[in-house]
Amino acid sequence: MGTLQRFHVGPRLSEMAVHNGTVYLAGQVADDTTQDIRGQTAQVLAMVDRLLAEAGSDKTRILMTQIFLADIHEIGTMNEVWDAWIAAGHTPPRATVQAAMADPGYRIEIVVTAAVG
Questions:
Q1: CATH superfamily of 24-115
Q2: Cβ atoms 87, 60 nearer than 8 A
């Protein structure tokens, strides 16, 4: 059995868990829900960067990404921000779907799984 570490543990969820060299992020959403899809996507990707760095990883080590959009018609704008952020040659497998969000202000939620190291 490998070591299991949880980070930023709350009563309902942890923001991140690391087990056997893999980091699992909880769904990340924007802090400022007044922003449009471009602004919220940038906020969420910055959170992903911070959490991955805390776990000893980075965006070049992402194994899988799941993206949930409140409005699938915003995928083009979201992709512009994503494409500027993701490292060339390191694009991970990804799924993008439309979903009802827990808060109507959320435009996007991103879940990431990455390798540590």
A1: RutC-like (3.30.1330.40)
A2: yes
Residues 44 and 41: their CA atoms lie apart, in Å, by 5
Reported residue count of the chain is: 117
At residue 61, the 3 state secondary structure works out as: helix
Q: What pLDDT score does 1 carry?
A: 67
Backbone angles phi, psi at 13, to 5 degrees: -160, 165
User: Among candidates 36, 22, 21, 114, which has minimal Cα distance to 69?
Assistant: 36
pLDDT at 117: 84
pTM, entire model: 0.95
Query: What phi, psi does 116 have (nearest 5°)?
Result: -90, 150
Using CB atoms within 10 Å of the CB of residue 32, give its burial: 0 to 12 exposed, 13 to 18 middle, 19+ buried.
Answer: exposed
10-residue stretch averages of pLDDT, the chain, 117 residues long: 90 96 98 98 98 98 98 98 97 98 97 96
